[in-house]
Amino acid sequence: MSQTLATSRKQPLTAPQAAFMVASGDAGFRKQVLAALSAARHDAVEAEGGADALLKLELGRYAGLVLDRQLPDLDADELAGLVASQYPQLPVEVLDSAVPVAGLRAGAGPTDFRALIQALRATRPAANPPRAAAALPAPVAAPPAELLPGMVGNSPHLTDLSALVRLVAARRTTVLVLGETGTGKEMIAQALHQESGRAQRPFVVVNCAAIPEALLESELFGFTRGAFTGAVQTRAGRIHAAHTGTLFLDEIGELPLGLQAKLLRFLQQGELQKLGSNETQRVDVRVVAATNQDLQARVEAGEFRRDLYYRLAVFPIELQPLRTRVADVAPLARHFLRQLAAEAAMPEPRLAVETLDLLERYPWPGNVRELQHALERAFILAAGEAELAPRHFPVAEGWQVTRGNGPRRAMPWQEVNASVAV
Fold it and tell me: How far apart are the first and last CA of the chain?
């Protein structure tokens, strides 16, 4: 696993403005392309897969992207389409690592990116003419992605998030969902399951923070009769229950150190061993984990295994907090009011202009969940009134805001992190 995947967002990666990126799981192929680019006097940065490339694109500026068709984690053509939609000015080309790159004569390479790619293709050995001559389809910009089922909002972040989920859902790749409490991490896990070929199979949830440490191992891996006092019969664990489906490990940061090694072995080998048994069982389980903690900081503090972190963070998906996506507040508020009115068999109340202004200015430390609960309280206090007014919401420090104060737009994620770091 690339060390760069674990790079903190508070210490963003940087790259020369004219640098290219070469994304491939084949170190030899990356070396060949980097040598050719260097001969053409171009700087280049490596990425060890599609997820690594997406992270570096988010944190740096690049002059072009070269994708290996044989990426280890994502489909290259789908990724090229996603990148084209997110970074329309960035040239993207797909090469095949199965066909070696001979390289360019030092100093003779063209400066135009697409001309350079054509030169790389032209200099390949003709040992395998059918493959070398095969036409590679040019990446086509993907149409705007629809939001995932159950997702409500107008922010670009939700569109990008939906595209990422659909991109990785069909694979067995382990996904780590990151985000503050209340941002909807379990909804993303459910979407990954529903968008995959496992949708009709079990979706098993394990909250690592809610189960006592003494019971967590038996809950996850199961136990045999007599394994401990009270074990009167053999029982399968949650992992076995998720066979052919998806296992969602919520609050993975709370997993005790003693269990982390056993979970790592399961992730690596696809085998589990019941408590009290010497036999192993193979299971087919797609794992999605989630946390609101800084796992990198816990790794540095010796509270979380580094190898387990890298194994979980194969494809990280990060949910932005509600305060950074103001455009989602109004649609979410109306969505929750519609649900509340339907449950109570009452007319749906309107949001006064002053109320909507109030909701959009509040920072929502509890994120979407806090917004939902605040609206439920206001709906009850309104007692059937046609309009929700500011007086129906808690009068507390932070709520007394007026138009003109606070952000007029959603702050970029990097900008929020930079302000927190300071």
Answer: 30
